[in-house]
Amino acid sequence: MRQIFRRLSSIIVFVIGPAFAAGTAYYITSRVAITGLYDWSVLQQSTLYQNTYRISASYSPLGGVSISGDQQFTIDGSACSGVQSCSAIVSFVADVGGDYVATIAGASSSRLRVRGSSTAYPVKAHVVGANYTLIGVDNGDATATFTLTSAGEADLISPTFAASTWNNVGTATIMTDTCGDSVPSGTSCQITVAFTFNADEAASAYGYILLQASGNTRQQAPVRLTLLLPPKD
């Protein structure tokens, strides 16, 4: 009886074992690697720069190469389609100073029991030029004073300002502007903005001012300031 049981067990193992092995999916991942410059260092305005990046996949052809971020970066990945490794040229040109960033993305294709994957590679560049910082202070009388500091390697030329309100509630009006036509690097100037509620709006204890600055540099996000408004007479 024991011999019969052992023989049946051997038959079951022989029949079932290979069936499980044949149905098992053994996958490997085709890893993507990108090598090249991370920091493009300090660049000049309105000048074209190019750098070459090596992109490769470990087990399968590349499925695509792209770049995202600041539009001043572009990539030529035409040599990367359907091959396992390639060289892609990234170009950069910017007409105004500031910091620029982008991300190179590479993906490998899936094939049979090879899984595709993707990877991202950041790049950054700094362009010599003007730059600024902007901060605001509540004056306590429904006005705010914003201080712009020219912080770049070059002077800030012809700065302009646009005042608005949060969700368009109330009105923001620029009252004074000491910045003039040029703000030398390392110096500051002031802009005063007044806040009032419109006639058809319910007054509250707070007002919200947004001030947008621009010039020969990258436009930064508006600075928002909350005013604690004095009570009405």
Written description of the protein model:
The chain is mostly beta strands and 233 residues long. 9% of the residues lie in helices and 51% in strands. It is built from 1 helix and 19 strands. The protein folds into 2 domains: 28-127, Sandwich (Immunoglobulin-like); 132-228, Immunoglobulin-like. The chain starts with a helix and ends in a 5-residue tail after the last strand. It has a 4-stranded antiparallel sheet with strand order 2-4-7-6, with no helix packed on it. Strands 3-10-8-5 form a 4-stranded mixed sheet, with no helix packed on it. Strands 11-12-17-15 form a 4-stranded antiparallel sheet, with no helix packed on it. The model is unreliable at 8-24 (pLDDT under 50).
What value does the average pLDDT take? Answer: 89
Question: What is CATH's topology name of the largest domain?
Answer: Immunoglobulin-like
Q: Low-confidence stretches at least 5 residues in length (pLDDT < 50)?
A: 8-24
Q: For the CA atoms, what is the radius of gyration?
A: 31 Å
Total beta strand runs: 19
Distance between the termini: 108 Å
Helix and strand element order: HEEEEEEEEEEEEEEEEEEE
Structural class: mainly beta
Quick take:
The chain has 233 residues and is mainly beta. The chain has one helix and 19 strands.
Topology of this protein?
Elements: H1 2-23, E1 28-29, E2 32-35, E3 39-43, E4 49-57, E5 62-69, E6 73-76, E7 85-92, E8 98-108, E9 114-115, E10 118-127, E11 132-138, E12 143-150, E13 156-157, E14 160-165, E15 171-177, E16 182-183, E17 188-196, E18 206-214, E19 223-228
Parallel strand pairs: 1-9, 3-10
Antiparallel strand pairs: 2-4, 4-7, 5-8, 6-7, 8-10, 11-12, 12-17, 13-16, 14-18, 15-17, 18-19
